[in-house]
Amino acid sequence: MRLNGTVNIERDDNANYVVTYAPIGVDHVGRPRRRFKGWQHLVAFLQGPLHVGAPEVRSALNALFRNGAFCLDGVWLSAGRGRAGARPRPRGAQRRGRR
Fold first, then answer.
1. Could you count the other beta carbons within 10 Å of the beta carbon of residue 23?
2. Whole-angstrom Cα distance, residue 19 to residue 64?
3. Distance (Å, rounded) from C-alpha 85 to C-alpha 34?
4. What count of Cα atoms within 13 Å lies in the side-chain half-sphere of residue 5?
5. Which is nearest to 80 in space by CA: 36, 45, 49?
6. Which long-range contacts (CB under 8 A, 24 or more apart) does 8-11 make?
7. Which of 21, 49, 66, 71 is the most buried (most CB within 10 A)?
8. Side-chain-facing half-sphere of 35: CA atoms under 13 Å
9. What secondary structure, in 3-state letters, does 53-93 show?
10. pLDDT value at position 94?
11. 4-45 pLDDT per residue, tens
């Protein structure tokens, strides 16, 4: 089964990024978050496991630098990937709980 949802991205003052996947019509309690140090690791994750195109990634980065948050609509993941936070973790990504 594939899930359609949104990818929510937030940026802090230290250029750290937090990514969450919110499937439509699915309970959002306990969604796994992925943390990234630096925009390069974020881009690698978006274009790699999530298969987000380059134009959408550029739009996301521009909005993140300007507003600190962005939402990508219409991202499709398998049910297992959506629950697991779109594993595997790309190189350079921080583990949950680490800052």
1. 19
2. 12
3. 7
4. 24
5. 49
6. 8/69, 8/70, 8/71, 9/42, 9/60, 9/64, 9/69, 9/70, 9/71, 9/72, 10/68, 10/69, 11/64, 11/65, 11/68, 11/69
7. 21
8. 11
9. CHHHHHHHHHHHHHHCEEEEEEEEEEHHHHHCCCCCCCCCE
10. 40
11. 777 889 999 888 999 988 777 766 665 678 899 999 999 999
Q: What is the pLDDT of residues 46-99, one digit of tens each?
A: 998 888 899 999 999 999 999 999 988 877 666 555 444 443 333 344 433 433
Place of tokens 């630096």: 38
Which residue has 């499937």 as its token pair?
A: 23
Identity of the amino acid at 48 = G
